[in-house]
Amino acid sequence: MRGIHPSHPNSKGIEHLRAGDIDLGGAYLRRADLRYAELEGADLRYADLNGARMNYAKLQYANLSGADLRNASLKDSILRSAELQGSILRGAELQGAILRSAYLRDADLRGAWLYTANLRNADLRNADLRNTDLRNTDLRNADLEGAILRGAILRGANLDGAKLSGANFEEANFIGATGLTDSQEARIVEGGGIVE
To answer: For residue range 59-90, what is the model confidence (pLDDT) as tens digits?
Structure first.
């Protein structure tokens, strides 16, 4: 089933797929219905998951490096400690997703929806978060060094212990965000962001 096309009869109704069932590395799964899929530790490197529905999927420890997840719906999915380096998540819906300790270095998250997501201890170094909705997210101890936060909305986000050096704050909205140090607030304002 490697490289399965959405028009293939086996591409529908695979929402209860388990990681051991098939090799998904490089698979073509555009607009696939993977809701509730149990893909713990699955190898999904470079998979085409553009527009896939993956709400409530269990993807902890999965390798999604370089995967195309543009406009995918991952609401309330579990991506704890998932590998997402260099993945494309433009416009993805990740509201309520658990991305705790996920590796998102160099990921493209432009315009993604991460409202109330748990990104505690996540590695977001050099990630592109332009115009991303990060309202009320848990970013405690997250590493955002060198991240592009231009136009991102971080209202009510918890940034206690987060690393922000070298990040681009232009037009980023941090109103109501908690856990920022005085020096971080000063850097945000100097970089064109809004704190209060």
So the answer is: 999 999 999 999 999 999 999 999 999 999 99
d(CA 185, CA 196): 9
Contact 150, 127 (CB under 8 A): no
CB 17 within 8 A of CB 40: no
111-163: pLDDT as tens digits: 999 999 999 999 999 999 999 999 999 999 999 999 999 999 999 999 999 99
SS3 of 97-144:
CECCCCECCCCECCCCECCCCECCCCECCCCECCCCECCCCECCCCEC
Residues with Cβ < 8 Å from 128, sequence gap 6 or more? 107, 108, 109, 110, 147, 148
pTM of the model: 0.89
Q: What is the DSSP letter of 146?
A: T
| 7-30: average pLDDT | 64
46 and 65 in contact (C-beta within 8 Å)? yes
DSSP string, 165-196: TT-B-TT-B-TT-BS--HHHHHHHHHTT-B--
